[in-house]
TrEMBL record:
Name under which the protein is recorded: Xanthine dehydrogenase family protein subunit M
Record key words, sorted: FAD, Flavoprotein, Oxidoreductase
Source organism, top-level taxon: Bacteria
Pfam families per record: FAD_binding_5
């Protein structure tokens, strides 16, 4: 391992100062540390956010849940408020990686990294979440911008994520056996404003499936989901599955998600 300095601030203000000074933020480290070991990343300074207690925790604000950026996956999965208000989000968190990943990984780290096969981006986009940062509030529709790309500016930290309570919601994914990432994951949410459907694992980043939303908005049934075809030309293929296979999985996972949401 090469030389680098390690900082562990205890306040949000100190973390922002270090980030704006060029420090590389370390949340759960599930992606960054692996990248460093492979020499794909070589930061000169690591800023560990684990000591900033104000960035962790779950609270209810009216009909919304606010989850701190440093809240671990396991804590989201086991939180009573999350289970009561948005059980689909608790179930999603419970299905991330393995036990060790859930014990260390954070919601803020996942959203900041924006892996194209990650689970939390699908939840944020389908639920119409708001990403709260040190500078502003960003709607999920404006936040995700492609392969590992987000609307975050240099030195801008995610503080929390605000999830409005849906009328019903569910997430289903077909796991890649080795990584446990989503080969395809579909999050379906029915809200007072309509149906939102987000797909992860299929392209260069999470995206909304507008055709599926339109069909489910007219009839929130598995039959409606089954009637929507996904264009494989808009998806990626790799050694784990072709674009055509992923397109088929979108329909299957969407039907399963609708069935789960309906109970």
């Amino acid at each position: 391992m090469y030389a680098f300095t390690f900082e562990r601030p205890t306040t949000q203000a100190d973390a922002v100062k270090l980030a704006q000074g060029g420090g590389k933020l370390l949340a759960g480290g599930q992606t960054l540390l692996a990248s460093m070991k492979l020499r794909l990343a070589a930061p000169e300074q690591l800023v560990d956010l684990g000591g900033v207690k104000e960035l962790a925790g779950v609270r209810q604000e009216g009909d919304a849940l606010v989850i701190g950026a440093m809240t671990r996956h396991a804590d989201v999965a086991g939180n009573a408020d999350v289970k009561a208000m948005i059980p689909a989000l608790a179930a999603l968190a419970e299905g991330i990686g393995d036990k060790q990943v859930r014990a260390m990984g954070t919601i803020g780290g996942s959203l900041a990294n924006n892996d194209p096969a990650a689970d939390y981006p699908a939840a944020a986009l389908a639920l119409g979440a708001t990403i709260v940062t040190t500078e502003r509030e960003i709607a999920a529709d404006d936040y995700f911008q492609g392969l590992f790309a987000t609307a975050l500016e240099e030195g801008e930290l995610i503080i929390a994520v605000r999830f409005p309570k849906p009328q019903r919601a569910a997430y289903m994914k077909f796991r890649q056996p080795a990584s446990l990432f989503a080969l395809i994951g579909v999050f379906v949410a029915q809200t007072a404003d309509g149906v939102r459907v987000a797909v992860t694992g299929g392209g260069n980043g999470v995206f909304r499936h507008t055709a599926m939303e339109e069909a489910l908005g007219k009839s929130f049934t598995t039959e409606a989901a089954a009637g929507v075809k996904t264009d494989p030309s808009e998806l990626n293929g790799d050694l784990h599955g072709s674009a055509e296979y992923r397109a088929h999985l979108v329909g299957v996972m969407a039907q399963r998600a609708v069935a789960k949401a309906l109970g």
